[in-house]
Every structure is written in C-alpha cells, then in structure tokens.
Write a structure and sequence with these properties.
The protein is an alpha/beta fold. Helix content is 37%, strand content 30%.
C-alpha cells in the first residue's frame, strides 16, 4: 500500500492561507491565486489535493465556492474538499462540480444519518473528519469541543461505508510541531476505516514513518505549512511515500 500525500490548500477570503491551531485570527497568507497553487503542486507530482473552505467551516455553508471551482477545473487529479458541508444539497453540489471526495465534520457529529445516506449514494466519496482537542471531537471550525471521544466518534461510522477518516490534532495544526503519528496509528488500528493523518507535519521523517504504517490502515497524510515554508519538498515526500 502506498501512502497518499495530500498538499493542502486552505481558503480564506479567496486567498491561500494557513492557520495556527485553527485560529482565523492567526492566518498567514501564501497567495491570492488558489488554482495557480494547485497547478504548482500538480507540477511537483501531486495527484491529490486537500482543499478547505475555512470561511465555510465557520459559516456552515460555502463561502469560497468560486476559488474551489477554479481549482477543480484546472487540477488534473483528485480534489478532496471540506469546510461547511452540512447538508445533502451541498454534498451533491460539490460532486456535480467534480470534487472527488467531500469531508464532513460538524454534520457527522450532529447528523450522522446524513453521512450514512451520502456514503451509500456516493460510494467512496465521503470522508468523516474527526478533529481532536485533547482527545475530544472539535466542531464548527474547531471553535466548539464536544464531550465525544475521537475513537467513539470514529466507530459510529464503521458500518456506514465511508471512504476514510480524517484525523487532525488541532493543537498541532499549522504549528510545525510534528504530526501526532502515534494517535493517528492508534486510531487506524482501532477501527476498520482507513485514516488520513493531518496537523503539524514538519518534515520528511513523518512522511516516512506514516508510510510504514500504511499496512495498519493509515491511508494518507495532509501537509500544508511545511510545504509553503520550504521545510518539506513535495516531490521528495511523494517519493518517500511510494517507496515505503
């Protein structure tokens, strides 16, 4: 099994940004042409992208739809999209536009039947986000923390047919502290759903370690700030992921 490397494009007011610990007031702007950034990643070998409508995550509905549409129309690979996708109409809209997978977080906790129905109707297209703050599920752009443990949340969807779980340690996201590899692997071993690692990837070493755990159910890894800051070379990360 080969680990999938997902370069991240986070959208805020139409710009490419990275947040620190999910804080909208701590955003670093990396560009104002999201589609151009997508094509840079494509040129470096990326076949998958992870795109987040940050404004949408807080608003509960699409805000950066124009930027997303531009990315999808130009990027030659698969686009995975999250941020404010909380009803059936939004799910259908993005699949109609050409998005390969949609990521559902808040609605997965508050309306699990929506996820079950979508996973049934769009096989392989639904990813459930299990974002963790101190082991508990965070929702609404990570602004709220529930009383539900991450593993319990994940297990609710074991029989639903979801494509993957997206696990983020919120406290590490955008901080270059290093991905929480152990928590990611523990979750992958605890459930029968593939897990995508996210949050805080700092360098090539984590890509290598996560790739070694592909057999444990770690499907992929999302990386953002490390790429934008030049701490991680995407071509090298893809090579390491494929070789493990």
């Amino acid at each position: 099994m080969t680990l999938i490397v997902f370069p991240a494009i986070d959208l805020k007011a139409g710009q490419v940004v990275r947040l620190a610990e999910g804080d909208m007031d701590r955003a670093t702007i990396y560009g104002d042409d999201p589609a151009a950034q997508a094509m840079i990643f494509a040129g470096q070998g990326a076949q998958y992208l992870h795109v987040v409508d940050l404004d949408g995550a807080f608003a509960g509905a699409s805000v950066n739809g124009e930027a997303v549409a531009s990315i999808v129309s130009q990027f030659p690979g698969h686009v995975q999209l999250g941020g404010g996708i909380r009803d059936r109409a939004a799910i259908e809209k993005w699949f109609d536009l050409g998005v390969s997978r949609v990521v559902i977080g808040t609605a997965a906790l508050e309306n699990p039947e929506l996820v079950r129905e979508a996973a049934r109707d769009f096989p392989g297209g639904i990813v459930v986000a299990v974002d963790a703050k101190d082991g508990m599920v965070a929702t609404r752009g990570w602004a709220d923390v529930s009383t539900v443990e991450v593993v319990d949340m994940a297990r609710r969807f074991e029989d639903a047919g979801v494509a993957a779980l997206l696990f983020t340690d919120v406290g590490r996201d955008g901080m270059l502290k290093g991905c929480n590899v152990q928590a990611t692997v523990d979750l992958a071993r605890a459930v029968r759903i593939p897990v995508i690692a996210s949050g805080g990837v700092a360098g090539i070493g984590e890509i290598h370690v996560l790739a070694l755990h592909a057999r444990d159910g770690v499907e992929g890894v999302i990386t953002g700030r490390a790429l934008y800051d030049g701490r991680l070379d995407l071509a090298a990360a893809l090579s390491v992921a494929a070789a493990a």
